[in-house]
Design goal:
The chain has about 475 residues and is mainly β. It has two domains: about 325 residues, Tachylectin-2, Chain A (5 Propeller); about 140 residues, Sandwich (Jelly Rolls), CATH 2.60.120. The protein has one helix and 33 strands. The radius of gyration is 22 Å and the shape is globular. The structure holds beta-D-fructofuranose (FRU). The site of beta-D-fructofuranose has 14 residues, from strand 1, strand 5, strand 9, strand 13 and strand 18.
Length: about 475
């Protein structure tokens, strides 16, 4: 470890010490989501189940709430629910990562935890340089940097980052998010037998590849995994135009289902699906655990969008992770459900069976409220065109049966205007909703659609009202949720 590394980490720990009271006094601070101790959190990195413990790293700027100086923060958990802070994993302190230890992934090799990340460097003229780097740990806590392991191939700009590594047969494979010199977003594949020397194999998916046509100028944070006999590619493209109810955030995160041939290399795939239909979701990463589950964590935020308006900035922190989800492939589509361990956080249950909603007044149910809660609604019988759940004064979930559309509405962070995101759904039979003070995650129909969003209207208004335009019968479960993180 060089002296600069020691100093940068010390400075980051001092920032935590200095601001932790201000941060924890924020009325928008959450109770059971992973958040930065201070500063800015973005992408999940290095998600892995290693020696009986879940490890999650994250892009972290300890010194402010802007996207500068990225470190790798680190938290661990036995149950995906209660997370403990660990020492800083990586600080931007070497010639190959001096302006940021950018996103990447983790694998276990011979009992060691090996991480791959992108060293972001600006030369003296401010031009971007990019290095795919490796770091190794024998205890899962302290990492020794090994420096760059792959070079930038011809035909790509230095927007080349976010390595995700996995093993297949007797080779290691690495995909990297990239931009061609023609400004097309793409994902490229490398292979290696020793993890130190990597051969460039070529592009496997991207704008103007595989018949996709125009599809963004940069693809970030790729992830590729095997699920139910298919290869799923997650990617976060930048530069897609809004298309009706799709692609309404500044940048998107989504997936393709397909088949990878590492020999060609080629990846034949179907259409791109957005993973989450809410306002705040980006750069997700997955990992398989010892139970064989494919787990996903996303950043509950979007780069550049709304960040200056986040009220938490005045308390020296910004952003959080989504709850961990389990993925399943159902008829060619990814379904996402909150991991079952989250049930251990449930406190007292309030239950109402066969609640009949009438058409005149929104209904409030005694004790069905709170700002740190889980809510589970079975729609037993829906005769109405419009079914609506209001959360506090400003957030709303509306299902419109005639338009086959689910809408989530919230108040814009700064202006008092309302804004909404929508998705197409034939019907609704189940809504599982997690509110954690300033966030809402909505899982519809056992994971068929998910909406993740931050809300900043009133952190103490836990009211909930139900409304239907014609007779509708629902069962309602509500749990208060215990505190799991600080
Ligand atoms: C995605 C991203 C990555 C990059 C990281 C930097 O949000 O832009 O491509 O590695 O954030 O923090």
């Amino acid at each position: 470890m060089n002296q600069r590394d020691v100093l940068r980490k010390e400075k980051a720990y001092k920032a935590i010490e200095k601001y932790e009271d201000v941060v924890s006094n924020d009325p928008f601070r959450m109770h059971y989501h992973i958040m930065p101790p201070v500063g800015l959190l973005n992408d999940p990195n290095g998600f892995i189940y290693y020696k009986g413990t879940y490890h999650l790293f994250y892009q972290w700027n300890p010194f402010g709430t802007e996207h500068t100086t990225k470190f790798w923060g680190h938290v661990t958990s036995q149950d995906l629910v209660n997370w403990q802070a660990q020492p800083i994993a990586l600080a931007p302190s070497d010639w190959f990562d001096k302006d940021g230890c950018y996103s990447g992934s983790a694998i276990e090799v011979d009992g060691k935890l090996v991480i791959f990340y992108t060293g972001n460097v600006r030369d003296e003229n401010g031009n971007r340089e990019t290095y795919q780097c490796m770091a190794v740990s024998t205890d899962g806590v302290y990492f020794e940097k090994k420096g760059p392991i792959a070079t930038l191939p011809a035909g790509y700009t230095p927007h080349f980052r976010d390595p995700k590594v996995w093993k297949y047969q007797d080779h290691w494979y690495m995909i990297v998010g990239a931009q061609t010199v023609n400004k097309e977003g793409t994902v490229v594949l490398f292979s290696s037998t020793d993890l130190e020397k990597w051969a460039f194999l070529g592009g496997i998916a991207g704008a103007n590849l595989n018949g996709l046509g125009k599809f963004g100028y940069m693809w970030e944070c790729p992830d590729l995994f095997y699920l139910d006999g298919k290869e799923v590619l997650l990617v976060s493209p930048q530069g897609l135009d809004p298309n009706g109810d799709e692609f309404n955030n500044i940048y998107q995160s989504g997936y393709f289902v397909g088949a990878l041939d590492v020999k060609q290399p080629s990846y034949t795939h179907g259409r791109f699906h957005e993973l989450d239909r809410g306002f705040d979701f980006y750069a997700p990463q997955t990992s398989e655990d010892s139970k064989g589950r494919r787990l996903l964590v996303g950043w509950m935020g979007i780069p550049e969008e709304n960040e200056a308006d986040h009220p938490t900035i005045s308390h020296n922190w910004i952003h959080a992770m989504t709850l961990p989800r389990e993925l399943e492939l159902v008829k060619g589509k990814l379904y996402q459900l909150p991991v079952e361990e989250l049930k251990t956080l449930r406190g007292k249950e309030v239950y109402y069976a066969d609640v009949l909603l009438n058409t005149t007044e929104p209904l409030e149910l005694d004790q069905v409220n709170g700002t740190v809660i889980e809510l589970l609604i079975d729609v037993v019988d829906n005769e109405s065109d419009i079914f609506c759940i209001e959360i506090g004064e400003k957030s709303k979930i509306v299902f419109d049966a005639s338009k086959e559309r689910l809408t989530f509405q919230r108040q814009q962070f700064k202006q008092s205007k309302q804004e909404e995101r929508r998705c197409h759904l034939k019907n609704i039979n189940k809504i599982q909703l997690f509110r954690d003070v300033s966030s809402i995650e909505i899982f519809v129909n056992e994971g068929e659609a998910v909406f993740s969003s931050r809300i900043f209207d009133n952190p103490t208004d836990g009211s909930i009202r139900f409304f239907a335009s014609a007779e509708t019968k629902i069962n309602v479960h509500k749990w208060s949720i215990k505190r799991a993180t600080r």
